[in-house]
Amino acid sequence: MTKSILLDTDVLVDFSRGHVKAVAFINDNSDRIILSAIVVAELFAGVKGGAEQGTLEEFVSLFRVVPVNAEIAKSGGLYKSKFGTSHGVGLADAILAAAVEAENAELKTLNTKHYPMLKGLSPAYKK
After folding, report:
1. Residue pLDDT, tens place only, 106-118
2. To 10 degrees, the CA torsion angle through 71, 76, 81, 82?
């Protein structure tokens, strides 16, 4: 079975801006894509409201959203504790990495350095 792909916020922001490589990546992998509740929160934090919010709600509804449960929260907290100071990993990225592992998914991001806990990580595409 092919692994699901959990997208980081940066890839989705590129997609929303019409970045050709992001659009192609999402279109080519749409049946495998899942989102983390953390990514959904980050996306809505950047919404101006009105029509933009409605469009984002429609887009998010196309994908399964992985909730942050106690297991993911614990693992994310431990990643933040381990890598926060040494690698500058923020809590949102630590929780996202924990969600990737809990789902046995692949993370696709442009910020591979934010995820030292995930071995063999490659960028979603080259800009």
Report:
1. 999 999 999 999 9
2. 100
Ordered domains of the chain (ranges, CATH): 5-113 (3.40.50.1010)
Q: What is the largest CA-CA distance in the chain?
A: 41
Q: Is the pLDDT of residue 1 over 80?
A: no
- Residues for the chain: how many in total? 127
Report how far residue 30's alpha carbon sits from residue 101's, in angstroms, rounded to the nearest whole number. 20
Q: How many helices (H) and strands (E) does the chain have?
A: 6, 4
Give the list of residues 6+ apart from residue 13 with CB closer than 8 angstroms, or none. 43, 46
Query: What token pair was written down for 52?
Result: 């933009």
The predicted-structure confidence for 21-39, as pLDDT tens digits, reads as follows 999 999 999 999 999 999 9
Q: How far is CA 61 from CA 30, 34, 43, in A?
A: 13, 11, 13
pLDDT value of residue 49: 80
Return d(Cα 57, Cα 32) in angstroms, integer: 19
Please list the residues that pair with 66 across neighbouring strands: 36
